[in-house]
């Protein structure tokens, strides 16, 4: 709910969330009282706007719209929550709306952010897709922003290489932007993950893109800028990566191309690492997520599950997958809760996403019991 | 004479030169006794070969051939000797054979080495000539190796930009290699300097090119590699520059081009600075030779000259230049001595090279006295 009322990643809200928890934070936002929680130095006029928006939020309607869009809500502490986001401190997202068969946390365990110019050259598109493809063949997921140009080429290359790709958008999960990448987003939902801080119905804003970039940088241990002019948003993503002490890499290009000038500035002034192929990138990131290359996923014991999660697991079929609404009904829990438990079960390796929805993962003890 | 008998830049010879002087060193080489000067750890079998070659040298014939080729001999301590070469320690050249109207030391005061692949791409040639041109317009001389490809483009760009260029060759001054660059070498003689460690008659060898590269690196405070494959000799020059603690710079290129792979390796593994234009290069080298941008050259007082040099100066005409042989005759000194004194006078700003030879520099007190 915070995600539709409050500016994403606002440190004041982050601090209150950390100290008081989500329920109290929401209450403070609704009553316009959240600024009182901050010290005198952190006062801001935003809380008045937030309070107005928060009072207009109808939680049930929001969850309905998310369910219609096939989105689940992932909050800090959830099994699907990517731990690297915690590097953002009080600017950590309050929550992420997630779509797609992939598990966000799993996809980010061995991931690289690949970003660049929207108006990329043929060279930039070629390098982005080739790099992402080769990274995917080496079991690296590619995180990017779903934009035209380098972002789209990177997502496509990753999917072509057989790994889950993560598209972090700056709009609601039901308003995938830009529309021209609609077919790509369908593929990402099918084989990867779309994640956004913004709740259903939110349209993208210019500021939103910049704020979104910190999430891209935070989800991966390293960011590669493939092709970027001096004013490209990709440099903003690289800046966030640097602030997070993540590895910043740049692909060089012709010095005669203004579209590579941003990359060259990263190399010259920002101490970015010069990378020319997937092997260079992998070498920089070392043994990150190396354990995922064989088999993938960490399977936990069913005994370790809490009763509520076990109830949801028992509602998941063994062969043909079913949607979360059906599972929620079968388990006798709300949609919101069902989605969270399903995320946990997916992260734990108990279930997986099939074409038609969730099913128990073949080869696990659970599946055998139920055949 | 050492330059036709002994391997260039051999540290054993360099050490003996330093401790005993040129006359004794030459005597030791001729008698095959130079190895005795070294400690037991520095023994080498080369002195036998050197002695054989040294005994075959006829000094007068050598100087005649040099004079025919228009070459002068510059030795350490001469006014035309570039002080930066001393950074090579015992591997410093014993002497340099120099051709051209430019003054070697003056040309190197504000200089950049620009090197790269012989089999350069259109991109590499374009960048090399443009970079050298823009550097020349900013009063930077360009030092390179006179080879096809990037070297030739850099020399041409520098000449086009109006600065003296320095071509360091790996052959005798009378055997300019490669012959295909003959027209370029003529222009360099006219507007710049050709320098070589090798005496008249010496043909280039593969080893000679590598040894030559240390001189290119030593003559400038920084080396730029424009385009180089992984096995390019330009990386050898960059290695020398690094060993000399000079600034190593590399121009990036498309990662899809094997001809830029060496540059990218320099950026990634050798901590080379990424440069994309002349301004980047100038920024890296800071205030090197900044005082030369206005006016150029340091004019010394005639009173400061020793009598022998003053005698040579008096033999230099005021308007139409004449060749060194004529000056030597007029001054009543040997050709070798005349060339050395002329070099000193040129470095001191008293004389300059005109189309037909040396003349007194217009605007100096000397010229006025003699009009």
From TrEMBL, chains A, B:
Domain Smf/DprA SLOG: 73-285
SUPFAM superfamilies: MCP/YpsA-like
Superkingdom of this protein's organism: Bacteria
Protein name: DNA-processing protein DprA
Signal peptide feature range: none
InterPro entries referenced in this protein's UniProt entry, alphabetically: DprA, DrpA_SLOG
Family from the record: Belongs to the DprA/Smf family.
